[in-house]
Design brief:
The structure is a single chain. The chain is built from 7 helices and 4 strands, in the order E-H-H-E-H-H-E-H-H-E-H. The longest helix is centred in the last third of the chain and has 11 residues. The chain has a 4-stranded antiparallel β-sheet, with helices on both faces. The two termini are 22 Å apart. 40% of the residues lie in helices and 21% in strands. By secondary structure, it is α+β, with helices and mostly antiparallel strands. Bound molecules: adenosine-5'-triphosphate and magnesium ion. Adenosine-5'-triphosphate (ATP) binds next to strand 4.
Length: 136
Amino acid sequence: MSQERTLSIIKPDGVQKNVIGECLRRFEQAGLKIAGVRMLQLSKNQAEEFYAVHRGRPFYESLVTYMTSGPVVASVLVGDNAVLKNREIMGATDPKKAAPGTIRRDLADSIEANVVHGSDSVENAKIEIRFFFPEL
Ligand code: ATP
Ligand code: MG
């Protein structure tokens, strides 16, 4: 087992729905440690940069509008296989396809408003953690 760090974001719909605590509880219950947490509202530039890999996709503009629509809660999660573990806790991108018991299946409304983000690799986790927590 390798100790990893990953970045989680509780997206604007999650904050709006009062499920910050519920999401953090699920991370902790699964054995992940919260090493940093910060609430902030992304600027358009920040959201565009964060989701730059999706630039040009049909949902990109809408995704940026949604991600800047309210505050988000970014956190650094640490633990064995944290990247994959967090992705398992989140469930599939589309809540309709997410497994029962996952955050997205239980709490999300749509493929866009899907409550949480999680880094998809150790490499991207490093970049994303630096983006929100330059001091960590
Ligand atoms: P995230 O990167 O947010 O953790 P993900 O890795 O499961 O989610 P990606 O394919 O990276 O999914 O898409 C990034 C985000 O863009 C999704 O979480 C969702 O908010 C939005 N998105 C993805 N696909 C679609 C789509 N087909 N229509 C609308 N929004 C989408
Ligand atoms: Mg992704």
